[in-house]
Amino acid sequence: MDLAADRLKVRRTDFYLWRLIATALSFLFFGLGGIVLRVLIFPVISLLPGDHIVRRKRVRAVIRLAFHMHVQFMYRTGVLTFEVVGAERLGRPGQLVVANHPSLIDVVLLGSQMRDANCIVKQSLWRNPCMRGPVHAAEYISNSGSPEMLEEAADVLREGQTLIVFPEGTRTTPGKTPVFHRGAAAIAMRGAKIVTPVFISVTPSTLTKAEPWYRIPDRRFHVRLRVGADIDPARFSAEGPMPIASRRLNDHLHHLYAKEFASP
């Protein structure tokens, strides 16, 4: 009885009901925002002077601003708190940004830190009525897993774009060490000048693959995004042919993330 009373007291003192409402509003505004961008904003951008690359940069800058506003909404309504360490090292030409994926919000928070970045996104977003406009206008890459997708991703890195990849392909299982598919390492070995790991933690765990949006934690959650040390993919090239080099790089990433999220 005392434990139940204590839990109720925690929820009341941290505005549980308000955070539930604000979380629902966050999802609503995110979906409506995607539609507004597709219907109103991007058509105007397409009419502005400039070549294809200039228009693409404008689209990505608008998406970055929308992400920033969304994070600020969740912060100012008391849904979350956050911190970002090392953001100034993101967004460099030919940089492959690799991140773990503990919740839905980390995608938005990471995207809000880079003005002009490409991203590999899951195929379902290309059919989503709210998101298909932004992902198409920004020329993001569909995660088909095909050899053609790997080459397309490598090409954007060779062109000097920044590319964001979540190598797990889905959200991390709470309490588990991230397990990366080898695709990100293969892309890095093909075209990246530098690989930069980003470590994302969400405490307490929320918005995971196994949890519906309305199962919010007893207190507002905290998102921490830390940019790790750069990795030169060329150092793995000497270890053998492309498949072996990719495997070595992938193993190195696994080691970094296992060390970062090891239990104290």
Automatic annotation (TrEMBL):
What's this protein's name? Answer: 1-acyl-sn-glycerol-3-phosphate acyltransferase
Q: Name one GO molecular function term.
A: 1-acylglycerol-3-phosphate O-acyltransferase activity
Q: Where are the transmembrane segments?
A: 20-48
Record the organism: Dyella soli
Q: Does the keyword Metal-binding apply?
A: no
Superkingdom assignment: Bacteria
UniProt-listed Pfam families = Acyltransferase
- Tell me the lineage of the source organism: Bacteria, Pseudomonadati, Pseudomonadota, Gammaproteobacteria, Lysobacterales
Q: Which SMART domains match?
A: PlsC
Q: Which GO terms describe its biological process?
A: phosphatidic acid biosynthetic process
Kindly give the CDD domains that the UniProt entry links to this protein: LPLAT_AGPAT-like (cd07989)
Ordered alphabetically, the record's keywords are: Acyltransferase, Membrane, Transferase, Transmembrane, Transmembrane helix
